[in-house]
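Hey, can you fold this one?
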Amino acid sequence: MPSSKNAPPTLPTVAAHAAVSADASYPLNGSRPRRTWITNGCIRTTVTLVIFAAYFAWTWPWYFKHVIPPETDLPQASWSVGVPQDGQTTHELGLELGTEGVLRAPPLGVPKSLQTKWGQYSPWHALDKYRPPPAACNITQVNILQRHGARYPNLLDGQNYSVAVDHLASAEKFRDKRLKFLKEYEYDLGADDLVPFGASQTFEAGQIAFKRYASLVNTTQIPFVRAAGAPRVISTATNWTVGFAAASHQRYQPYLNVIISEEYNNTLNNDCPNAGDGSRETNIWLSVFAPPIAKRLLEGAPGAHLSNMDVFNLMAMCPFDSVAKETLSPFCSMFTEEDFRAFEYHGDLEKYYKTGYGEKLGPIQGVGYVNELLARLQGKPVEDHTTHNDTLEFPLDRTVYADFTHENLMVAVYAAMGLFNVTAPLDPRHLPSPHHEDPSGQSWVASRMVPFSSRMVTERLTCVSDEGEAGTYIRVLVNDEVQPLEFCGGQDGLCELERFVQSQEYARASGRGDFDLCYG
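Sure. Predicted structure:
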């Protein structure tokens, strides 16, 4: 059975957390003896059945428990989910089958119009239909950088969310019927780990990767997989490998080759102690949009007390409670569409001023990965003086690479590469136009750039011109949307490899001293 090592370990179970310490910084290896009377076909069939049984065990309860939530008295149209209404199609409800022949993640039970206003807490959604490269081009290498799947709140945030719920629930009475569920509500979300919906979206991503790039895989070319050391990232990586193997009918079984500890600098986790965290800008915006919402909530809950941060935390309960329970959370109905536009912009500001262009030391946190990417694309040793660890396994001869990380690292990589560069800094006092394609609108949007399970895919291609001359090109897609690559003269999303490498001068110079500023 082919593998990225000579002897593969037991195939990881879908959605199970890898039993590996997050402090480990070593390649995974292991094997077990196989009884000679068990054939490869028998093993593949058995593993495939187990995988799909586990998958349906997660998703099937949704179809029993999912119902249309009760009507509310929202000041605008309420969020409607469930069975198609008159004139609605399954496509509009997000229930369409995958066009690439993959087993899709179950419907979340939340309208896409709401999911995409959750900022970095939005579930993955394609920004465009995947477009194959031009007919004269063949893909020769793929580099996938993917965020972990949908998760529970981290421990500290979860504690703050619970406190905010208690503050609102302390009201003397509830005049607004949308709040009455708080009488019996008890905070019951886990902390940090993937939720089943996030695991299933990651499984789906692995399937898509195989279906899309199967021509690059054979018995000697198995994807090389790395993950940052957080348990949710490790789980994401292992679920991706299982989805990839399932799509290949167990013919190709990648597994997690390297876990990189987050206790130290590494190219899959942002770290810069002297960098800002965006809190100044997000607090300014919070002081603008939160008070009117707090006033409205308190009118329906006399006797309660809410701070601006409580408002944000209550709004965050909408995405986290929804992805955990795979149905529309009652917290969502407490807020209007315009409220969630403001919530989304809070995430845009945080990412821009934390590891994006708005923070001087933001892009440097993505330089290490960019230099690793350049090394793979050129087949040359890594030249980096920031976060690359040259003691870890780092092959240069693979056709498919998959790295798993966090959203803040992905934003830093975008900024280091020159993606999503905006002409003017984001204004923390005013909400921009919502039209992403409008030059006057907002193009830096966290829900489009780094939702849960987001991925940046860098394709290396060999293209033949009309004159018969072959050249090497690069194409970058973020959540299936081809990026223009204007910084290297991109045409139709294609950029010559040499010009792409030249355009990464900041990364090739290891940040021109910015890395030292992180610690000096």
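The radius of gyration is 23 Å. Let me know if you want another pass with a different chain boundary.
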